[in-house]
Amino acid sequence: MTTGTRESRLSSAFVKLADTLVTEFDVVDLLHWLVERCTEILDTQAGGLMLTDLTGQLRVVASTSEEAELLEIFQLAVGEGPCLDCFRTGIPVTVGNIEIDGGSWPTFSREALKQGFKSVHATPLRLRGQVIGTMNLFSHHVGALVPEDIAVAQALADVATIGILQERHIRSANLVTVQLQRALGSRVLIEQAKGVLAATLNTTMNDAFAIMRTYARDRNLRLREVAGDVVSGRIDVQNPPRLMGQSPPAQGRSAGFPAQIP
């Protein structure tokens, strides 16, 4: 990626974040967007993002690929990995060569290499000492992020964290935890909808998510709403052209769709 292209994408990312955070926004969609943009800007091949739930435990909320998602879930299952260390310390963790430098997390390292990843960088989602999650970037190539790239990842993560914890949503501790819990709950529903679409349209989970998100954006709907409609049958998943947003309904998410999936 050329310097000009990189600077343009970085500038656009901050503009997008700033524009998003002054209005009510979809947390799940924002976090998926954040991970996608960071993987593009920093030339990594995959990424994932974890947030804490009501009990303080980390949960996977966003990922750019099935391999990244599996590796994130694997870290949580075995209780080791650079992403977990990043969360515990609130400090970025960079591993330029997992095969050589991953000795602190042998189980994670074996799985990462199995999934085709050779390096990883974990960035904390933190604000004033409070760490609410981590953003994790994985690469198929050996090489640590340079200090400039680490700063870029942290800056984007910081802005997103401010958005999640911004004042209108944190007048009490309860509002913070409710919003985070809602994001985690949304993920479960979205994963169910992805499975329905992938099976019905004979496509991948990643493509199913892209179709669903495009549909939501074209109609100015929340991703969770669309996922709920897919799972409940209010959207006709047997009709790919409609689902892919070629002919948005004039009013509401149900216009032009049958009440139930045939």
Q: What can be said about this structure in brief?
A:
α8 packs across α9 and α9 packs across α10. β1 and β2 form a beta hairpin. The protein is α+β, with helices and mostly antiparallel strands.
Strand order of the largest sheet: 2-1-5-4-3
CATH architecture of the largest domain: 2-Layer Sandwich
Low-pLDDT segments, ≥5 res: 244-262
How would you characterize the largest beta sheet? 5 strands, antiparallel
- Gross morphology is globular
Q: What is the mean pLDDT? A: 82
Helix/sheet category: alpha+beta
Question: Percent range for helical residues?
Answer: 40-55%
| Tally of helical runs | 11
GO molecular function: kinase activity; RNA binding
Keywords: Kinase, Transcription, Transcription regulation, Transferase
Region (Disordered): 237-262
Protein name: GAF domain-containing protein
Features:
globular, 2 domains, alpha+beta, Beta-Lactamase, 262 residues, disordered C terminus, Arc Repressor Mutant, subunit A, single chain, five-stranded antiparallel β-sheet, 55% helix
If you had to describe this structure to a student in words, what would you say it looks like?
Residues 237-262 are annotated as: Disordered. This protein has 262 residues and is of the alpha+beta class. It folds into two domains: 3-170, Beta-Lactamase (2-Layer Sandwich); 185-243, Arc Repressor Mutant, subunit A. Helices cover 55% and strands 13% of the residues. The chain contains eleven helices and five strands, in the order H-H-E-E-H-H-E-H-H-E-E-H-H-H-H-H. Strands 2-1-5-4-3 form a five-stranded antiparallel β-sheet, with helices on both faces. Strand 4 (119-127) and strand 5 form a beta hairpin. The relative contact order is 0.11.
